């Protein structure tokens, strides 16, 4: 654990990419294979299941520190991070631990079946022998909140430096449902047969948001344009007569979409299609919210299949006749994709994402303006000569999203943030007018600068009407423009609507509270775009 705690400190103390990669590569060369595997797992969000609730950890930490529970809770609200709060308030250790990261993860996993009193005994024993930083790491793992400022891309680069293997090969090896419990470093990283898993997807190629004018990209004939469909990015894999469906988040979601099952016989072996899992009916896409009813379910009912049918809107072909063709140009891959779907009818389950025809950038700009009317989020631009790369890259693929929907709302509640913003009010609840009352309709926490967060925090402290734990009810006064990507009816919300990706667009200091929009205005947006 000492090595991992030292790594955590080294990564936390720098923002320089090369320094982080060097620290990781050095760490991989220091620890054994098991610790390497668990480090790779933690950095790629493969954490052990939580075995102790945060409520119990807070209670035990307060008792062990001899603090009143209210004082511990106030400390937590100020610090903003439970793992750090516990590490700060605990007495100094009276023992010293030399156990590895793997030992402590196995220790945490073994707590699951124990009774509460035994769990408490074991957790206190761990706290008593771990240093402050080791306790922090231990607490992060046991709460399921282990996040380190290292992307999987950086981890792959560090592994490449340590092993001498190509980054693209390592990125592929790390895809799939591996855990340190079901494979080894040798099998996953070093073995020549590590890519034989027939279900394994390819790393997704991701686009950046287009900044500036499209004309800066060059001539239109260099670029393929498609609509950016609002579903779940996925890879459909057919190998050895079996079908696998992966989401961009590296989740195997085959069971949630059983209607794709016939494709195992309709498409040839050695086929991998990159596309959008899209709710679709009567010739057009449906609301993204319908798709959410399909996720996280063990059983997909007949009713759900009828109300939220899906297709795969095919963007790209990554594997053809068992061959990895990602290095071929976008234009060549598109031609092969068209041939594949033409020669192997799929009863509409797989449909080609239509290419948008345009002669100049202004024509495409107008297509983008009406994208929302076509149930699209905007336009995707892909250089015709581009290979299919791994991860988010600039230059060849761009997303040109529609402008967000907006509405002016009044802030009525404020809550403190977490981490470095624990002393600032950064999470807000907003309301709209309904006759003479303000009706809450959404929360948002991003969009302001640090200076603006500091300004609003000072104001909240002076104008708090009531307190509800970390939440403050404030005098209705400030108006903010709220941006959002979508809207739908919702029985769970008092307002009757739910927004998709709400965020603060700007602070409308030029508007008085009575100039904020009304619920009628919001419902009009719902009627047009819901």
Task: Chart the SSEs and their pairings.
Elements: H1 2-12, H2 17-28, H3 33-43, H4 54-65, H5 69-79, H6 82-89, H7 101-109, H8 116-129, H9 132-143, H10 152-163, H11 167-173, H12 185-190, E1 205-206, E2 208-209, E3 223-229, E4 232-239, E5 242-247, H13 263-266, E6 271-281, E7 284-285, H14 288-292, H15 302-307, E8 310-320, E9 323-324, H16 330-343, E10 350-352, H17 361-369, E11 376-383, E12 391-392, E13 397-401, E14 405-416, E15 425-434, E16 437-444, H18 450-462, E17 464-468, E18 471-474, E19 479-484, E20 486-489, E21 497-500, E22 503-507, H19 519-529
Parallel strand pairs: 1-12, 2-13, 8-10
Antiparallel strand pairs: 3-11, 4-5, 4-6, 6-7, 6-8, 8-9, 11-13, 14-15, 14-18, 14-19, 15-16, 17-18, 19-22, 20-21
Helix pairs in contact: 1-2, 2-10, 4-5, 5-6, 6-9
């Amino acid at each position: 654990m000492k090595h991992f705690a030292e790594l955590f400190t080294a990564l936390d103390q720098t923002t320089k990419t090369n320094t982080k990669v060097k620290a990781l590569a050095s760490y991989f060369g220091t620890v054994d294979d098991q610790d390497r595997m668990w480090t790779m797992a933690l950095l790629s969000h493969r954490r052990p299941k939580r075995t102790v609730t945060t409520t119990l950890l807070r209670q035990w930490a307060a008792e062990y520190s001899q603090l009143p529970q209210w004082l511990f809770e106030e400390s937590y609200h100020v610090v903003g991070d439970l793992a750090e709060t516990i590490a700060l308030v605990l007495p100094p250790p009276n023992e010293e631990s030399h156990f590895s990261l793997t030992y402590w993860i196995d220790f945490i996993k073994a707590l699951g079946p124990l009774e509460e009193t035994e769990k408490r005994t074991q957790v206190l024993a761990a706290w008593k022998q771990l240093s402050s930083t080791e306790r922090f790491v231990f607490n992060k793992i046991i709460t399921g909140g282990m996040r380190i400022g290292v992307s999987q891309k950086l981890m792959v680069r560090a592994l490449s430096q340590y092993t001498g293997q190509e980054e693209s090969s390592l990125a592929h090896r790390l895809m799939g449902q591996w855990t340190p419990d079901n494979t080894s470093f040798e099998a996953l990283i070093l073995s020549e047969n590590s890519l034989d898993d027939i279900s394994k997807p390819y790393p997704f190629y991701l686009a950046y948001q287009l900044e500036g004018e499209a004309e800066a990209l060059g001539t239109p004939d260099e670029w393929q344009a498609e609509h950016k469909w609002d579903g779940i990015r996925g890879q459909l894999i057919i190998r050895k007569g079996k079908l696998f469906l992966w989401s961009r988040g590296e989740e195997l979601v085959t069971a949630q979409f059983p209607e794709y099952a016939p494709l195992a016989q309709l498409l040839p072996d050695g086929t991998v299609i990159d596309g959008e899992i899209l709710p679709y009916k009567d010739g057009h896409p449906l609301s993204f919210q319908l798709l959410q009813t399909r996720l996280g379910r063990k059983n997909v009912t007949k009713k759900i299949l009828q109300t939220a049918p899906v297709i795969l809107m095919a963007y790209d072909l990554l594997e053809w006749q068992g061959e990895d063709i990602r290095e071929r140009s976008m234009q060549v891959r598109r031609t092969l994709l068209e041939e594949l779907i033409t020669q192997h009818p799929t009863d509409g389950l797989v449909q080609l994402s239509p290419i948008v025809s345009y002669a100049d950038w202004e024509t495409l700009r107008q297509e983008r303006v009406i994208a929302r009317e076509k149930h699209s989020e905007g336009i995707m631009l892909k250089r015709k000569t581009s290979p299919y790369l791994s991860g988010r890259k600039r230059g060849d693929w761009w997303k040109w999203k529609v402008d967000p929907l907006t509405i002016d709302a009044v802030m009525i509640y404020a809550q403190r943030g977490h981490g470095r913003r624990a002393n600032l009010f950064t999470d807000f609840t907003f309301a709209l007018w309904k006759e003479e009352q303000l009706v809450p309709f959404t929360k948002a926490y991003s969009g302001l600068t640090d200076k603006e967060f500091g300004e609003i925090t000072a104001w909240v402290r002076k104008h708090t009407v009531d307190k509800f734990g970390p939440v403050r009810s404030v005098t209705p006064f400030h108006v903010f423009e709220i941006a959002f990507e979508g809207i739908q009816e919702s029985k769970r919300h008092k307002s009757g609507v739910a927004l998709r990706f709400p965020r603060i667009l700007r602070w409308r200091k030029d508007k008085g509270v009575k100039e904020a929009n009304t619920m009628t205005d919001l419902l009009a947006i719902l009627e047009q775009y819901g």
